[in-house]
């Protein structure tokens, strides 16, 4: 009944929305550098910048030899700003915040921090590393799969709207506090992306039964997006040369490529004779916005047309925003993409 209601809302006309070129994915992350710092005072032990939240939950980030400890809220605000347009509807931002928090929990990056006196304490400007007991969370580094923008980067990105958009992200994180996505009793790192090719991809189809919680759903409004269709062309000789460099041998006289697709229309692999290349690798090789692409040779050039932006698995941010505009709550949005997974911690 929930999905029927959501799809009925989606059938209403939704205007075009400007798409911005920053998105993150869980399974195929585009990592942003982390800006971290540590403080060393003359004659004192080394400390790390931190604010201990009332809940006691912290995240530690590393860049080189520097480690920065911050509150759950502070980290999620920066992570949220890095992966979704802050101009999106509040309920869409809240849904994304839940996904990011779940990924922190699933990766062991978000833990209770207990001070020496046994309390979680109120906010402090900085504490010594030696004053923290209990099990420390795993440090988020360049291999952890998280994108993050610090406050200075957010101000540069947002310009005159920085204060307003900062507050929107903060409110989304606070309003979704305590909510995570769980499958079989454990938090999951749920994938997300910018814009589908008309339908999200099936987790079961791609990764097996263990990813059954990642459903394939129709996203009928996505075709209205400004960047839904994109086109790229290059000389045919260069195109086949790039494929051959990847080990895909193509017959010179009668080149023929066979594209295998999943049920959502995304290319799983491109085959030429006995050699092939995976759809996602093809996308990376030719710098395409998605792996839902179509090939056509025209007058000595290969024209590549793509649909959507991103890998197509999990939460479709554009569709989530469209649903939020129609009055859907963050809970309803997450229930549509990840049915039965939303949980509130005690």
UniProtKB/TrEMBL annotation:
UniProt signal peptide: none
Pfam families found in the cross-reference section: SpoIID
Domain Sporulation stage II protein D amidase enhancer LytB N-terminal span(s) in chain numbering: 66-182
GO biological process: sporulation resulting in formation of a cellular spore
InterPro entries xref list: SpoIID/LytB, SpoIID/LytB_N
Source species taxonomy: Bacteria, Bacillati, Bacillota, Clostridia, Lachnospirales
Protein's name according to its UniProt entry: SpoIID/LytB domain-containing protein
């Amino acid at each position: 009944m929930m999905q029927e209601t959501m799809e009925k809302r989606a059938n209403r006309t939704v205007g075009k929305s400007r798409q911005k070129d920053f998105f993150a994915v869980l399974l195929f992350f585009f990592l942003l550098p982390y800006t971290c710092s540590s403080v060393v005072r003359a004659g004192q032990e080394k400390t790390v910048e931190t604010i201990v939240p009332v809940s006691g939950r912290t995240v530690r980030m590393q860049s080189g030899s520097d480690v920065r400890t911050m509150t759950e809220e502070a980290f999620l605000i920066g992570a949220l700003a890095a992966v979704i347009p802050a101009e999106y509807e509040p309920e869409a931002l809240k849904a994304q915040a839940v996904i990011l928090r779940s990924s922190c929990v699933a990766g062991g990056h978000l833990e209770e921090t207990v001070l020496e006196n046994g309390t979680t304490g109120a906010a402090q400007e900085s504490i010594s590393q030696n004053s923290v007991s209990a099990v420390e969370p795993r440090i988020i580094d360049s291999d952890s799969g998280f994108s993050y923008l610090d406050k200075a980067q957010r101000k540069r990105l947002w310009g005159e709207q920085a204060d307003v958009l900062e507050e929107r992200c903060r409110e989304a994180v606070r309003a979704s506090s305590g909510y995570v996505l769980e499958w079989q009793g454990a938090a999951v790192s749920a994938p997300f992306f910018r814009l589908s090719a008309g339908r999200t991809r099936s987790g079961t189809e791609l990764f097996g039964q263990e990813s059954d919680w990642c459903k394939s759903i129709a996203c009928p409004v996505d075709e209205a997006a400004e960047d839904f269709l994109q086109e790229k062309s290059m000389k045919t000789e260069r195109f086949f040369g790039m494929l051959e460099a990847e080990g895909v041998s193509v017959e010179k006289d009668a080149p023929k490529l066979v594209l295998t697709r999943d049920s959502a229309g995304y290319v799983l692999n491109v085959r030429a004779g006995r050699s092939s290349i995976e759809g996602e690798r093809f996308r990376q090789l030719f710098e395409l916005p998605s792996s839902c692409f179509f090939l056509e040779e025209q007058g000595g050039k290969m024209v590549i047309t793509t649909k959507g932006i991103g890998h197509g698995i999990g939460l479709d941010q554009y569709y989530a925003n469209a649903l939020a505009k129609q009055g859907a709550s963050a809970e309803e949005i997450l229930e549509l993409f990840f049915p039965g997974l939303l949980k509130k911690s005690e």
